[in-house]
């Protein structure tokens, strides 16, 4: 049985709340059931939902819901609860994707170490195709982006970079389709 579960942020004036689900395919080995799916579904809609509200929706006691949520967290199925900020309200007006080519794989750990200390990097992925890594970066303006690009290009092993600046965003989500499969 396939279930569609979407992360619809709880909109607040400057930010929205959501949870991050790190797995997209559930099966019997995770020992989850329809009630767990309902809990996850509700948390993806409202990451700040009170447990008594969730208990009411799934028709369980608050301690039962709390226990189920704890188990989902322990299994790593829910990785974190966080506020998703409206970056424009905080003057981070530039979103860019930077494709980086690192000379060889022996230099990847040092590259990743450098990336991890820079908060403007929201995502870093090892990729196939043109380049070895792609970064999603938020910057206040083109001047700060240019300075960050110069910094990246100065790192040992960085052969070249290619940047794409986002003009407008039509979809940006952490929504996942979750399937329940039987083994």
Number of helices: 5
CATH topology call of the largest domain: Arc Repressor Mutant, subunit A
**CA radius of gyration:** 20 Å
Level-1 CATH class name of the largest domain: Mainly Alpha
Largest β-sheet summary: 4 strands, antiparallel
The ordered string of helix (H) and strand (E) elements is EEEEHHHEEHEEHEE
Question: Which residues sit in consecutive blocks of at least 5 with pLDDT less than 50?
Answer: 1-17, 20-27
| Helix-strand makeup class | alpha+beta
Specify the overall morphology: elongated
Q: Helical residue percent?
A: 25-40%
**What is the rounded distance between the termini?**
12 Å
CATH architecture of the largest domain: Orthogonal Bundle
Number of strands: 10
The strands making up the biggest β-sheet line up spatially as 7-8-6-9
